[in-house]
Amino acid sequence: MQHPRSLLAQVFGFDAFRPGQEEIVQAVLEGRDTLAIMPTGGGKSLCFQLPALCREGVTVVISPLIALMRDQVRSLREAGVEAGALTSGNTDEETEAVFRALDDRRLKLLYIAPERLASGATTQMLRRVGCGLIAVDEAHCVSQWGHDFRPDYLRIGDLRRSLGVPLAAFTATADEETRAEIVNRLFEGREPATFLRGFDRPNIHLAFAVKDNPRRQILDFAAARRGQSGIVYCGTRAKTETLAQALCEAGHAACHYHGGMEADERRRVEVRFQQEDGLIVVATVAFGMGIDKPDIRWVAHADLPKSIEGYYQEIGRAGRDGAAAETLTLFGPDDIRLRRGQIDEGLAPPDRKQADHGRLNALLGLAEATGCRRQVLLRYFGEDPAPCGNCDLCDRPALLFDATEAVRKALSAILRTGESFGAGHLIDILTGQATDKVRQRGHDALPTFGVGRELTKPAWGAVFRQMMGRDFVRPDPERHGALVMTDAARPVLRGEEGVTFRRDSVAAAGPRPAVRA
Ligand code: ADP
Ligand code: ZN
């Protein structure tokens, strides 16, 4: 059987589980009856789709919405998974193909509308072809008191009894009564493994800072936490080694860790970290999976993580004991270029690349947040909390400014120079610097030349970075560093939309932002 984590990457194209997913996947894989309550958009489907690929036989998915089923079947097929649906929306050919795949025991996921359960034929057929798991989406539809009641959901209990297989039920509705009803009707009153937990880790302080002098920033952060166990995540193996050395030279107990090290060397670091107090491990994301240390007091990212999911997982290693823990994530334009480049140059099909860019945008939205970070983070996972009081932006609200004019000037500089230049040259044009390159290309004759003198060069750098963060401009992978305008910027260029940026991010390009002690 393939490891769930490798399937997560290979089949679904995700680099990390979302909060809650891994535990649920594990329970379902073990064949336990499971009830998972997750907010809408939290990523429930994966919790049955991934186990379905690992388990014997076909997994039957009961879902109330035909459109949703068809969507899921389509994206599973695009990912190379044998999936099908039996709904009233099928053509005869589609239904025929599904039955053939079932008979050949090829099908891994079969979506059916609950109405199908009204005739015993479906149950007969499922017994014949070997069903290994029943997954029930929107399980609250079994509740007679809720407004989504679907009478056919009451037949699911019978289906489970006659197939004698585990059942995994999913819903976003968490109230006590609905849950009790689900347990009664789907699990005959026997308590399933139940997963209901908010995603918040309120004891973890969240903070981001623009990279200025990253080594200095990490050293300062560690110096303020001398003697505490911490992890520094880096984007490359080489950096883990140089940064660990710098920390040692600053008098910390620190070592590096990455996938290129011998297994026993890695093991030594893991054991040391587990047993010693106050060790700092400077690592790539390879570090952490097997680590179960409750008193990690801080996690710093020396480079922007891959996704919000990865970020959440990595900072989540801090403060498992519930005591206060601190985090700091550094990011800068180079991170954005690097991540965009990795997506563009990857082998994924276009749809997935687009989804990956979208996820990167969400992470950059968190990095450049203008209000409480925890709100931005948890909203991404489907929750909607009040401002947290435990993040850098709650501690010190961001100063905002209307960047509409600045963005339009920058876009105009990009367009007038044929989308062929990087931020450095564009900033020279905007601030009216007649450099050799500017003069050689005749860019000192452009109407945009010198129109941005009201901002300093570092301030313009921050504007360009935030434009990249909003996905208004992307570096062209074909032409190193050249910025190209995206459709997202058009409404701003046309004057239909305004833009608000953070002034403190702009200022951060000058003096270093204070790090909370
Ligand atoms: P719901 O809980 O509402 O059923 P979905 O299963 O449709 O949510 O997932 C919501 C979105 O989250 C989908 O776009 C899905 O691709 C994405 N998603 C789910 N799991 C992950 C993950 N581990 N990493 C990144 N994206 C994920
Ligand atoms: Zn906050």
From TrEMBL:
Range of residues in the leader sequence: none
GO biological process: DNA recombination; DNA repair; DNA replication; SOS response
Record domain Helicase ATP-binding: where: 25-192
Reactions accelerated catalytically: Couples ATP hydrolysis with the unwinding of duplex DNA by translocating in the 3'-5' direction
Keyword DNA-binding included in the entry's annotation: yes
Molecular function (Gene Ontology), one example: hydrolase activity
This protein's UniProt keywords: ATP-binding, DNA damage, DNA recombination, DNA repair, DNA-binding, Helicase, Hydrolase, Isomerase, Metal-binding, Nucleotide-binding, Zinc
Domain Rhodanese: 216-266
Uppermost EC category: isomerase
Listed GO CC annotations: bacterial nucleoid; cytoplasm; replisome
EC numbers on record: 5.6.2.4
Cofactor(s) the record lists: Mg(2+); Zn(2+)
Record domain Helicase C-terminal: where: 214-364
Record's keyword annotation contains DNA-binding: yes
Family per record: Belongs to the helicase family. RecQ subfamily.
Designated name of the protein: DNA helicase RecQ
Organism taxonomic ancestry: Bacteria, Pseudomonadati, Pseudomonadota, Alphaproteobacteria, Rhodobacterales
Portion of the full sequence shown: 1 to 517 of 680
